[in-house]
Specification:
The chain has about 190 residues and is an alpha+beta fold. It contains four helices and seven strands, in the order E-H-H-E-E-E-H-E-H-E-E. It has helices spanning about 15-25, 30-40, 85-100, 115-125; strands spanning about 5-10, 45-55, 55-65, 70-75, 105-110, 125-130, 145-150. The protein has a seven-stranded mixed sheet with strand order 1-2-3-4-5-7-6, sandwiched between helices. Strand 3 and strand 4 form a beta hairpin. The longest helix has 15 residues, at about 85-100.
């Protein structure tokens, strides 16, 4: 169970979030300008949250909501909090916000080699719908494209998740769920 509180991300959080970005995503981390640009679009089309414990940011997540579609743009958790519910709490909050904004489906991209994140998303009802080849830059790593219809949220199952599904066919260009900020993004690092 998490001890953190979730709250909206503000410009005062940018330095702490950027530090985590560099630690978790290395050369694929967002820049200060990119993050500030995302925050400038909330609450109109974006919703960013941080998980905080005793003043320290332990995770963060962002959602793009446009019309009936939502897109998880980022979800990251400090390594010392992996498996402790922080990522689940952040994802649950994003899905609730997407539903509140009238989205009927939510998309995301996640590195093909990030089994931990894929398991989290599958527990929350996301299914693989395609692959984006070379999506993450500069590494050139492929991304799984995942989708979840909104409605009653399935309960996250107790116990370990099942095995990851093998990669599916390549997703067509222009598939909904493309990171709208113009920056390929990782899914959860929980």
């Amino acid at each position: 169970m998490i001890s953190e509180t979730l709250r909206p991300m503000t410009s005062a959080d940018v330095s702490a979030v950027l530090k985590l970005e560099r630690e978790l995503f290395g050369e694929e981390a967002w820049s200060r300008a990119m993050l500030r640009g995302e925050l400038a679009q909330q609450p109109e089309s974006r919703h960013y949250l941080v998980a905080e414990d005793n003043g320290a940011i332990t995770g963060y997540a962002g959602l793009l909501a446009a019309g009936s579609q939502g897109d998880v743009l980022t979800l990251a958790v400090t390594a010392d909090r992996w498996g402790r519910g922080t990522g689940s709490a952040l994802l649950e909050a994003l899905l609730a916000e997407a539903a509140r904004r009238g989205c009927s489906e939510v998309f995301l991209e996640v590195r093909i080699d990030n089994a931990r994140a894929q398991q989290l998303y599958r527990r929350f009802g996301f299914v693989q719908i395609g692959v984006r080849r070379g999506y993450y830059q500069p590494s050139g790593a492929d991304a799984l494209v995942m989708r979840r219809e909104l409605g009653p949220a399935p309960a996250a199952p107790a116990g370990p998740p099942g095995p990851a599904a093998p990669p599916g066919p390549a997703a067509p260009a222009g598939l909904p769920g493309q990171a709208a900020c113009g920056r390929p993004r990782e899914g959860s690092r929980e």
